[in-house]
Specification:
Elements: E1 3-4, E2 21-22, H1 38-53, H2 57-68, E3 82-83, E4 88-89, H3 104-111, H4 117-125, H5 129-134, H6 136-154, H7 167-173, H8 179-195, E5 197-198, E6 203-204, E7 249-251, E8 257-258, E9 267-268, E10 270-271, E11 283-288, H9 293-300, E12 311-313, E13 320-322, E14 329-330, H10 336-339, E15 342-347, H11 354-357, H12 360-377, E16 386-388, H13 413-420, E17 444-447, E18 455-456, E19 459-461, E20 476-478, E21 482-483, E22 486-488, E23 522-524, E24 528-537, E25 540-547, E26 550-556, E27 563-566, E28 569-573, E29 579-583, H14 595-598, E30 607-614, E31 619-620, E32 626-632, E33 645-657, E34 662-666, E35 670-674
Parallel strand pairs: 7-13, 11-15, 11-16, 12-15
Antiparallel strand pairs: 1-2, 3-4, 5-6, 8-9, 10-14, 12-13, 17-24, 17-27, 18-21, 19-20, 22-23, 24-25, 25-26, 28-31, 28-35, 29-30, 32-33, 33-34
């Protein structure tokens, strides 16, 4: 089990500047953690800890939110050894895989106090380390005590007189060794203090009057940030990473190199281009690396992998590394009709253990990056333009089963879109649910279960290189019940009805399964569909949607209504046809290709042979119709005839939410309406 140790990580991380790999300790006890959940008990635990320690309640709650989003992940440690809501660390040389226990690096681990905050905090409140790691209330008490202890040391034995005066102590709690990372963490904490935060676990009211004493961070005597690595090796000479000014970014270029010196077309890992001048940027795709942060960077520097992404976001602290200029086309999602027009963001993590990897730092950093990219390229801030790799179809029939399913069921789309500043749906009155006119047939609904309350069990397998604490390489089985971003889809309005069967995954027509990668029986938060039917039962409301050419049913109980009304542009097969085809790509017609390109790389629209849209069904579009288009790039130096040409056809296509994945339909086959 391996997890890359980064320099300067906050308290959830291995805060040592060592070129080693680390693994967080296994849970201190098999005993289940205490369930301090719900607004009442969790609020009480924070209030008691704040009163005992002298830490302002809003500062304590905001710090905990930045560390864990107020969740304890079932008592399991984070990927870098942090436990509980306060992410108190417990990493020792004994838990480091492949580290010589007698080495200087091992000694440095043992001497680093930021890797043993659980033990330090436990001593402050007179509790054993195990209780601090597995009991939520004790974890909060201990974290508060540790924060107060640091504040007193910085204040000559006195606690700060104002909430803003806790800035330096909050920065120290981050465990960062450089000023930039510590400041970024503290700034986010105090932004939460000022603006507030509300989840199903807790509500923190904002106080805009709090003024953070940012200058007090100088008392920590942290190192200056490392110089930004210039992209001097980039083919277009980009000097700096393309990021918001206040985001911690660097540049580590992906390979643009030949694999066979005798063949100028044998290059990896991306296509030089001139976007958006020659090809529009319309989408932002969200991925996970299935590798460590360092491993992903290394992978993209190997031209033989024929893969890349524009950005990589580190789990521990949200640090961003750019690997491909946005003007160029990264090979990121296995479908050139998508990635030609997308900017891709990879996240350090493993989809089957996403909750252990997807940190608040990642969510907030990525949200800021997405806002910047969307504003720069005029990309709408909605889930029809910001979507996961799992929502992208393979580029042909044969690739549907091998297409990736990241970021997976544990990526909190609802929270992420809130951070982006584009909530998926507004609030509404539950009293409307029983109204027969609510979500009528033919209307549009958006899927939005309550993530924290949507506890599901899925099964999956751990990969050989998965360093998630507790993961056994190659082991398959059910994952712990935990928050998920999807609803199960069934063949009828009955909780015992079979799960929907995806024809590319179940050629024999057998029912869907609870496997995380069985994407055909799941509808994900933010996806929009047209209502095909609805039923009210003793359990609540069941909604049927047009999904993959069929009716798919999901339950929306009154306690977690997950089919919320929305609006969208929808397409329906034109009258007089039994069905219309569905395409994996939106390519130009053959006549659009210049002869030199047609001779070597003629790409026409690829049918998805197992899919169609029967008459009468409707599907939500992801925007206006677009021309079939293909960026032709042949040689590494652009020397082939008509090299680096954007071939644009006259055939128009709509990108639609077909099932769990997107797909294309020919605009000539459909009628368009607003719903």
């Amino acid at each position: 089990m391996r997890s890359h140790v980064q320099p300067g990580l906050w308290a959830a991380g291995c805060a040592i500047a060592l070129a080693v790999t680390c693994v967080a300790a296994a849970p201190a006890s098999a005993q289940a953690p205490s369930a301090v959940s719900g607004n009442g008990t969790l609020q009480g635990a924070f209030a008691a800890a704040a009163h005992e320690s002298g830490v302002p309640l809003n500062v304590l709650e905001a710090l905990a939110y930045q560390e864990s989003a107020w969740t304890d992940h079932g008592g399991a440690p984070s990927t870098s050894g942090g436990y509980g809501i306060m992410q108190l660390t417990d990493v020792s040389a004994a838990t480091l895989d492949g580290l010589d226990p007698d080495s200087a690096k091992a000694a440095a681990v043992e001497a680093d106090p930021t890797l043993a905050t659980a033990q330090s905090a436990a001593k402050l409140i007179g509790k054993d380390k195990g209780a601090v790691e597995r009991d939520d209330a004790t974890n909060i008490r201990a974290g508060a005590a540790l924060l107060a202890s640091d504040a007193k040391k910085l204040g000559g034995g006195k606690l700060p007189a104002t909430a803003g005066g806790w800035y330096a102590a909050v920065a120290k709690y981050s465990g960062a060794t450089d000023a930039a990372t510590a400041k970024q963490f503290a700034d986010r904490v105090f932004t939460t203090v000022r603006t507030g935060m509300a989840t199903s676990a807790l509500t923190l009211a904002g106080d805009a009057s709090v003024a953070a004493d940012a200058g007090s961070i100088n008392a920590l005597h942290l190192s200056a940030p490392a110089a930004v690595k210039a992209a001097t090796t980039s083919p277009n000479g980009t000097p700096l990473p393309e990021c918001p000014a206040d985001l911690d970014c660097d540049y580590n270029p992906a390979a643009l190199a030949l694999n066979n010196p005798a063949d100028l077309s044998s290059y990896g890992n991306y296509d030089p281009a001139n976007r958006p001048a020659q090809s529009a940027i319309r989408y932002i795709t969200i991925h996970d690396t299935e590798d460590t942060y360092a491993g992903a960077i290394s992978t993209f520097q190997n031209p033989a992998v024929y893969a890349s992404a524009h950005y990589i976001v580190r789990s521990s602290d949200g640090h961003v590394t750019q690997a491909v200029p946005t003007q160029d086309i990264a090979w990121d999602s296995g479908n050139w009709s998508i990635y030609q027009h997308a900017v891709s963001i990879e996240h350090e993590g493993w989809a089957i253990h996403g909750a252990s990897w997807y940190t608040e730092a990642q969510y907030e950093t990525t949200a800021e990056l997405v806002r910047y990219l969307a504003a720069r390229f005029n990309i709408p801030l909605d889930r029809q333009h910001i979507f996961g790799h799992d929502e992208v179809p393979g580029s042909k029939d044969a690739n549907q089963t091998s297409q990736h399913w990241d970021p997976g069921p544990y990526w909190d789309w609802s929270h992420f879109m809130d951070l982006v500043g584009a909530p998926i749906v507004p609030s509404f009155s539950p009293s409307k649910l029983a109204d027969p006119s609510f979500n009528p047939l033919g209307s549009v609904v958006v899927v939005k279960p309550d993530f924290q309350g949507n506890l599901q069990v899925v099964s999956g397998c751990t990969t050989a290189n998965d360093p998630t604490p507790g993961a056994v390489p190659g082991q398959c089985g059910e994952q712990p019940s935990q928050p998920t971003n999807f609803v199960w889809l069934r063949t009828a309005a009955d909780p015992n009805a079979p799960l929907l069967s995806e024809p590319y995954l179940h050629a024999d027509g057998s029912p869907g399964t609870d496997s995380a990668d069985d994407w055909g029986d799941k509808a994900v938060t933010g996806e929009k569909f047209v209502v095909a039917d609805r039923k009210i039962t003793s359990d609540g409301l069941w909604t049927a949607i047009w999904y993959g050419g069929r009716e798919a049913w999901f339950e929306s109980p009154w306690s977690d209504f997950s089919a919320l009304p929305s609006t969208a542009t929808v397409v329906t097969p034109k009258p007089g046809v039994a069905s219309i085809p569905v395409y994996a790509t939106a390519a130009p017609e053959a006549s659009a290709y210049p002869a030199p390109i047609a001779a070597v790389d003629l790409r026409t629209p690829k049918l998805l042979s197992l899919y169609s849209i029967p008459a009468g069904q409707s599907y939500v579009t992801a925007g206006p119709a677009v021309n079939g288009e293909y960026w032709y790039a042949r040689n590494i130096d652009g020397s082939a005839p008509d090299d680096r040409t954007d071939v644009v056809g006259t055939t128009m296509f709509y990108l639609i939410q077909y099932n769990h994945r997107l797909a294309w339909v020919n605009a000539a086959d459909v009628t368009v309406s607003q719903s």
